[in-house]
């Protein structure tokens, strides 16, 4: 059963979707998420947890994500159907977006991680996931935005083998004032230049993430979920600064030490995305063209 969603959110969603049933999906890191099932559609609903330990201001972050969704929709980078509704409740903020029926990237690639994944049908499927993921990043980047949190838990794979990205709370757009300072996301998929900027600036300084950093995160996520190994080796219990330093210094696990089976075309794409210098990485548009040529 779990925690109940904000009554204000339920009222708003029932106006749009009819009577809804809300099933708790997660309760961690200061926020809760539910699957809200209505007669006229399904939404993913999240709200800050007022009982959470002090840390990131999830209510403010949720309000920021809503502003990002509106701006990205206006810029044509997101479908107008993605954002369902948002608002305040007595203990903070809530946000609802269109439900995406899919499997988290890590789980979706489970078969491909083992030797049994070396089969003809898997190759075009992996490339199709990469291409559709790059297409969404291309739209964001063309609008002057970076997702800034490209990672497996923010990427779903639908039943037809397409990637779908979500969670735009940390995204970086043309406007850098009036927002929470960006100070990193998941370390495993943080680009070296972002890690270096985080280490070399005060904690309250905003680090503007560029599209090239999304490309590094894209490559790192594919490396991680296909090989089963984090792309940057460091001890799990190492201090946070040491982990960021390993990323900033360009330490990387090589495919020779990690690949579950040989897939040269895929490996070349991932390796190009994880080039240490941002200007040496392909753009999202380049990736779409490269992958289309191989399919």
From TrEMBL:
Domain Protein kinase, by residue range, is: 1-295
Q: Which SUPFAM superfamilies match?
A: Protein kinase-like (PK-like)
* Single GO term (MF): protein serine/threonine kinase activity
Taxonomy, superkingdom: Bacteria
* Keywords of the record: Kinase, Transferase
Q: Which InterPro entries match?
A: Kinase-like_dom_sf, Prot_kinase_dom, Ser/Thr_Kinases-Pseudokinases
Do you know which PANTHER family this protein is assigned to? PROTEIN KINASE DOMAIN-CONTAINING PROTEIN (PTHR44329:SF214), SERINE/THREONINE-PROTEIN KINASE TNNI3K-RELATED (PTHR44329)
Name listed for the protein in its UniProt record: Protein tyrosine kinase
Q: Which organism is it from?
A: Streptomyces yunnanensis
Its taxonomic placement starts with: Bacteria, Bacillati, Actinomycetota, Actinomycetes, Kitasatosporales
């Amino acid at each position: 059963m779990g925690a109940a969603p904000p009554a204000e959110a339920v009222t708003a969603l029932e106006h749009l979707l009819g009577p809804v049933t809300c099933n708790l999906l997660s309760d961690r890191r200061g926020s809760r998420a539910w699957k809200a099932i209505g007669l006229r559609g399904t939404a993913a609903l999240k709200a800050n947890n007022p009982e959470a330990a002090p840390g990131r201001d999830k209510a403010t972050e949720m309000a920021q994500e809503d502003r990002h969704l509106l701006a990205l929709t206006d810029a044509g980078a997101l479908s107008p159907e993605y954002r369902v509704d948002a608002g305040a409740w007595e203990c903070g903020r809530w946000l609802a977006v269109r439900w995406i029926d899919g499997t988290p990237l890590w789980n979706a690639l489970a078969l491909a991680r083992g030797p049994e994944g070396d089969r003809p049908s898997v190759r075009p499927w992996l490339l199709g996931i990469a291409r559709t993921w790059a297409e969404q990043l291309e739209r964001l980047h063309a609008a002057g935005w970076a997702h800034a949190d490209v990672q497996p838990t923010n990427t779903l794979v639908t039943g037809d083998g397409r990637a779908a990205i979500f969670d735009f709370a940390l995204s970086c757009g043309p406007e850098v004032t009036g927002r929470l300072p960006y100070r990193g996301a998941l370390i495993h998929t943080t680009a070296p230049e972002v890690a270096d900027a985080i280490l070399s600036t005060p904690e309250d300084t905003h680090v503007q993430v560029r599209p090239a950093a999304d490309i590094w995160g894209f490559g790192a996520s594919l490396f991680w979920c296909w090989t089963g190994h984090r792309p940057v080796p460091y001890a799990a219990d190492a201090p946070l600064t040491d982990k960021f330093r390993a990323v900033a210094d360009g330490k990387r696990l090589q495919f020779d030490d990690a690949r579950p089976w040989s897939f040269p075309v895929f490996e070349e794409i991932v390796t190009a995305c994880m080039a240490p210098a941002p200007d040496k990485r392909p753009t999202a548009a380049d990736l779409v063209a490269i992958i289309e040529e191989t399919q």
